[in-house]
C-alpha cells in the first residue's frame, strides 16, 4: 500500500496522512505505532532527504519484520527505497520512547493505534492483530507527545472512535472512509 501512495505522491496526487499531518521536506517525525511501517514510509518520503522518521513498534515480531524490510527490501522505485532506508525502526513502548526524547525535538508525533473496531476492508492487518499492541492510547502518551512535538501531534483512528474527543484532537480529515485524522497543532 505504501508503494501505491508514494507513486501517487510522485504523480502530484495527495495523500490523506501527508495532508493531515502537514509534513514537509526536512521534518523530523516520530511514528509511535509503526505496525507494518507503511505510514512511516510515506512520512519519510514526504520529509525527504533532509528529514528523518523514527518508527517505534511495541511488538517484537512486527519490529523485526519492519526493521529488516526497511533495510533490505528493494521495490524497484529508487525514491521509495531511499525513503525506506531513512526510517529508523525502534523496538519498545511508545510512552517510554517519548519520555527519552528532548522537548520540541520532533516536528510531528504520529499515532495510529490498532483500532478497537477493525476496518473490515483492511485484510492485510487481520492476521497481525494477534501480535499488535492493542491497548487504547494513554493520556500520558499524548502529554509526552505534546512535549516532544514542535508543530503537531496527529492521530489516525476509526471515525466512530471517541479517542479524538477524549484526547483533544481536532478532526482535520473527514471523508467517506472509515478512518479519520485528528491534529493537535502548535503553530
What would your notes on this structure say?
By secondary structure, the protein is of the alpha/beta class. The protein has one domain (about 1-185): Vaccinia Virus protein VP39 (Rossmann fold, 3-Layer(aba) Sandwich). It has 8 helices and 7 strands; from the N terminus they run H-H-E-H-E-H-H-E-H-E-H-E-H-E-E. A 7-stranded mixed sheet has the order 3-2-1-4-5-7-6, with helices on both faces. A hairpin with a 5-residue loop joins strand 6 and strand 7. Helix 1 (about 1-10) packs parallel to helix 3 and helix 3 packs across helix 5 (about 80-85). The protein starts with a helix and ends with a strand. The model has no long low-confidence stretch (mean pLDDT about 90). Keywords: Methyltransferase, Transferase. It comes from Cohnella rhizosphaerae.
Task: Name its key features.
187 residues, Rossmann fold, 22% strand, alpha/beta
